[in-house]
Amino acid sequence: MHKWLFLLVAVGCLILGAMASADQNPYKESLPIGLTDEEKTRLDEIGINHTVTAPPTGELRNCAEWEPSEGVIIRYPLGIPVSLVAEMSENEMVTVIVSSSYYENQATNTFTNGGVNMANVQFFYGTTDSWWTRDYGPWFIFENKTMAIVDHIYNRPRPNDDEIPEELGADWGMSVYGMPLEHTGGNHMSDGLGMSMSTELVYNENPYISHDSVKTVMEAYLGNDYTVLDYIEYGGIHHIDCWAKFLNPTTIIVKDVPPSHASHDRLDARCNYLAQQTSPWGRPYTIVRVYAPNDEPYTNSLILNDKVYVPLYGTSWDDDAIATYEAAMPGYEIIGFTGSWYSNDAIHCRTMGVPDREMLFVDHMPLFDAEDTVSQYRVAARVDACSGEMLIQDSCKVFYRVDGGSWQSVAAPPSAFQDSVVGFIPQQPAGSQIDYYIQVADLSNRVETHPFIGAPWAHTFQILETNVAPQIVCDDTLWLWSGEQLAFCPEIIDPDDTMHTVSYSGQPAWATLAGDSLVGQAPNTKEHIVFTVEVDDGQAQASADVTLDVYICGDIDDTGDGPNVSDLTYLVAYLFNDGSAPAVELAADVTGDTQVNVQDLTALVDYLFAGGSAPSCAPVD
């Protein structure tokens, strides 16, 4: 009897020990980043404990990820490797959310054994459902230079996670503004200068308010103009950080995939769109592509002060991803970490940066190219000393170098209101390239630069040459079409002058001058025309010969006798029998839809034999 009792006790201890061991596992699985099947039945519980408040009323600015940070928020049990915690704790405060003293002790043991700097670890007691602190964590704003929290409705029926921002705000003594919008941190990226982006997930999760109302809420609580983009993936969680990330106000890194990938065309189209948008620095966005052929989550990285933590996937493309970041972010330390990453989440999703609440914020519009070789170049910046301390006059400077030479500095004294600095770079000769950055400091011992990383990513502008001859850019061969008006206008590149006159000589008799263009009715004949275009900017001149080949629409064999049966035969041979391509391919586009296909054959037959419409080839852009 005693023997059986002892055996039962021993087995029970083993079971309890195994359960405790599993419970103490720092990589214990939490709820997934997506919805579980059970959670899909409780969508009505999303936001049940969320508190909606009136929006902030002061001057607002939503922080960018690359701005000065004081720390990062994670949760224990962990979703990230201990080695990453150790790296982040070197210089930043790591706030660890734990549910009890038991987990605090377990985390302390794990961190100590893993080389974490415990002086930079603080524990926050709060019950959580998952480790996705980016998705449910606080969003930070500055309201009249005081840091506050914006709390969105977490888009999961996980009330414990959803309450964390409000609980952190109370513990940290920050105002918390409850936003009446279902959202997720992984689907929001901000440039820190009044603009942010998300995918259309935000519309789909807030179906009871209009799209314009969504944007109005974002502006009211964050101060941001809001761009919402179509989906890239055909499934998944549709967070923007799965495929894109701001690296600075004018640079976006975007995932690149092979042509066979389902999202390839959408990603390319999105990059083309973003590259045509204007950044807050007044330039088009620079798009950096990071190759992820196996859906490696390389864009799901974390910027924390001067370090970038990049998820590694254990593939042959990891080294290329690190090299891409190093080339795109000079001056930063790029560090890779393997972990339990998925294709739609990694380091960014499982961490939430905390801005420096007393940061020294510098706002400056980088200088554009200039023609002035006489005057100095004014460099002005707005400065928010959120610590409330005075700026140090002797430490506020503009550093510059000319044509890659040694760095020099000029004073940039603060204004009487301590809200701006101004410095003057000396005038330079035409043709010079000037690199520069701004430095400010205050009595809180903070020293900041603009751009954030300083010299390695310095701003650049050119002093343009003067009295330079203009350049004429024109296609040597412009395809014209019968029965339509010809319009020829060369592109004039004249960087040192805004005024110039354009004239022509030898132009065809049917073309007349209209402004800088030649316009006229193209003849219904095949012609080869050569004429000259001349440009005079008052100080220098340039000329270029232009060749125009006028074709007849539907004259596919290029004989000059117009569309006939021989052209029909030529088109049939080209489309179906590996025949020769038209000498002027656009002449075969008789429907004018910019494609040569069976529809053109049908239109030509209709025209020749059934009294159909005459060919109407489209122009080339």
Task: Note down, in words, how this protein is organized.
This protein is α+β, with helices and mostly antiparallel strands and about 625 residues long. The protein folds into three domains: about 40-50 and about 55-355, L-arginine/glycine Amidinotransferase, Chain A (5-stranded Propeller); about 360-460, Immunoglobulin-like (Sandwich); about 470-550, Immunoglobulin-like. Strands 20, 21, 23, 24 and 25 form a five-stranded antiparallel sheet that branches. The chain has a four-stranded mixed sheet with strand order 1-5-6-7, sandwiched between helices. Strands 4-3-2-17 form a four-stranded mixed sheet. Helix 9 links the parallel strand 12 and strand 13. The longest helix has 22 residues, at about 1-25. The model is unreliable at about 1-30 (pLDDT under 50).
Summarize the structure in short:
The strands form 10 sheets. Strands 20, 21, 23, 24 and 25 form a 5-stranded antiparallel beta sheet that branches. The chain has a 4-stranded mixed beta sheet with strand order 1-5-6-7, with helices on both faces. The chain has a 4-stranded mixed beta sheet with strand order 4-3-2-17. With 621 residues, it is of the alpha+beta class.
Name some characteristics of this structure.
single chain; 621 residues; alpha+beta; L-arginine/glycine Amidinotransferase, Chain A; Immunoglobulin-like; 3 domains; five-stranded antiparallel beta sheet; four-stranded mixed beta sheet; 12 helices; 34 strands; 20% helix; 30% strand; globular; disordered N terminus
